[in-house]
Batch of 2 targets.
Target 1
Amino acid sequence: MTLLAIESSCDDTAAAVCTDGELRSNVVSSQKEHAQWGGVIPELASRRHLTNIVPVVEQALANAGCTFGDIEAVACTSGPGLIGSLLVGHTFARSLALAHNLPFIEVDHMEGHISSLFVDERRPTFPFLCLTVSGGHTQIARVTDPLKSEVLGRTLDDAAGEAFDKAAKLLGFDYPGGPLLDKTSLGGDIHFLPLPEPRVEGLDFSFSGLKTALLYSLRKKQAEDPQFIQSHLADICASVQHRIVTALLDKLFQAARETGIREMGIVGGVSANSYLRAQFMARCEAEQCMGYIPAFAYCTDNAAMIAIAAYHKWQAGQTSAVSAVPYASR
Ligand code: KG4
Ligand code: ZN
């Protein structure tokens, strides 16, 4: 069964083709023009999706070596995300399905991220714990089958990616600052700048205090030394990154102890972070857990993960009516 999947929930226009759950192509067009505004401008994002969608889909079909005539189902992200962005991919996908009388499959973006663990051959076995860390979401879920998961904890305020981006902005990086902060932290001292540990009950997270603590700490240091940020950039980045990553992993391994589950994965844009990847694998080894992280291309938003989730839904008979509409939030 060959399907075409489309993802357009934020600022990446993406399309992928898979056959019987095996990926054949994966194309992403990332919108760089938001950097100059310091964040994603929703109206601009939806206009870019409108111009990108046809070439991205055509490229995905060409890379898979197929034509539209080979496609047996059309899938897309149904939400959560920016509604104007979602509407472009969703309307395009259901129009294709309607015009060619093909099954239409909607995939929740968060379910999609979890499915990024099933793109490559090395895959977790059920049940496993999945930490989803992106620009808009941070959660720990217990995943019991490809289509069933239960959220055990989530952020009470900022998402982990938001924490990276806000800290990076205070340090003078362009949006999205997370990947730049990651690169700059190489060789930096993780204990250089003491930052408070978030204190949250259970398996929930909180990251909003970190930005405030960093802001006040930087103000104080800059009053003594106006060059403080420039002189210690790698150390400051390493300290911020260590605080965010430690908060994430402490909760994930707390969840492992509480549930007794030894298989775990990390997914979403922030799982591309080099320090998180290294610390996660080291702690899995120390605590005798099996750790899984998608390849870089499947961490940030992509349609490969939507294609794999859609295949599982199709196998389970879960198709949608072409009258379905996307949702900005649940
Ligand atoms: O999953 P994603 O592409 O989009 C959403 O669904 O939000 O995640 C984007 C987020 C951004 O906040 C970005 O700064 C962060 O992932 N990110 C990183 C890294 N690469 C992407 N954060 C830290 N280190 C990275 N290497
Ligand atoms: Zn995402």
Target 2
Amino acid sequence: MSDASQHTDFDVIVVGGGVAGIYAAHILKNKLGKNVLGIERGDGLGGTWYWNRYPGVQADTDGIVYRYSFDKETSSEWDPEARYQRGAQIRNYLTEVAARHGVDEVYRFGRAAVEARYDDAAATWRVEVEGGEAFTARYLVSAAGVFARPVFPDIPGFDDFAGEIVHSARWPEGTVLDDKKVGVVGTGSTGGQLIVAAAKVADSLTVFQRTPQYVVPAGQSRLDAAEVQEYLENFDANWAAWRATRLACGFDEPEVGAMDVTPAEREAVFERAWERGGGFEFMFGTFADLAFNRESNDAAAEFIKGKIRSIVKDPDVAERLIPSEPYAKRPASVDGYYETFNNDNVELVDVKANPIARIVPQGVELADGTVKELDTLVFATGFEAIEGAYRHFEVAGREGTRLLDQWGDAPSSYLGIATPKFPNFFTLLGPQGVFSNLPPGIEAQMDFVADLITWSDEHDEPVEVSQQVLAQWQEMCNEIANASIFSEVKSWIFGSNVHTDKPRPLFYFGGLAAFREVLDGERAKEFESFRTAS
Ligand code: NA7
């Protein structure tokens, strides 16, 4: 921390200390030799994994690929034999990687960046943190997070509740659900994990479900020793192969469509995937077209509906758990999810049929007047994805243009990285970045940003994407996203969980391999799209 505590001017400021920020700081400091300041509002590193500490939290992407590919060694906090890592393990892993590479030293913790402003004349960024202290740098890398802004529903009576209200993403230390009357609002990936964990310890669990989800088993298991050895011995080759796939989730991505095989073959493929577990693997590792072909999507949906009916003993409860929408949200996977609704201490409330009217001192009152008594009310109601980070971090580019104004109702950044009017400002996981397993997607983006910075340094010229290039990118992203069945449902992937009437595709759905080709094309053209100034 010596640099950060003594100086206010840096080569690069990195906002955020999660998976993206740590990688950015590492590349900038250790590969480019930059003088870097990292700003993190939490008291430690980890980002999403720092904030999300709810019971049951774990990754649902395989641990062998939910990690950095540049660091083979760090593993003491990593359990290479477990298919998925728990939240605390990932947090510790990230902290340890940062320490191993000297990245923790560049961070200042505990105060959020509240404003960043581009100084046109000086061609520098000025970043202010809570409390008023300010820093300057030529480049600003925002790794402010995809899930930085949790959302609570607009329900009256929050202050009336006699018990404890928590959001899954802001879990207070010491809050336990043991022997409590617990309510959980929300049944997304988070709600699913929480529900299973809470049901095991709570006196009673009331699940307030608005839209049922398709949930397949996660398939948490132990990898065998030979698998782990193969993984470590061929670490780089494995990563090279995974990067050449669409999702880089570590499984083979088939080319055959679900309708190209017989019904019996299809059933067998789904059954094997169900047995093995994994949401992404079920959606993208069974057949090539579940996200794009309605018939194929229906087939997968019907398979999962059949599983719900066979697992859930009470047919009324089963029907309430069965989605009517296509299978087109970020795929959820939780072990024992549907089985949990067979527990005597678990009640499922359909809040579409009987909405939450208000929170009252003793619990939650429904529209029909029923009161569900609770000690702890948990909101697993998600996030304002991507854009949300900039509601408490005001970024202003050339001529004072606000980032959120520039994005408007159609947020887009070229490659998820660059926004016109924001010179030398780079978002990692900005709007319309690649939809893939996040760590390799982040590495691809940041490696590219590093090359852009090097070019800018060499030419002594700020880099800024042109409006025309962005428009073409946006059109392509929208076209692919709107052709996908994901566009038919409301979810954070389209920002429509918050901006309900204004869906916006927040990702490039062309896959990581194609995304990386676009990046290489830009490199080959010597970053032509970013040379607006020349
Ligand atoms: P999600 O996937 O956005 O899920 C939020 C859940 O909360 C979902 O079931 C929502 O139902 C529900 N919700 C939101 N508002 C309400 C209200 N007002 N009443 C009832 N239910 C509500 O967030 P997660 O945290 O689970 O997951 C986010 C990502 O984090 C995940 O995809 C991983 O990538 C990691 P709805 O479907 O909107 O009716």
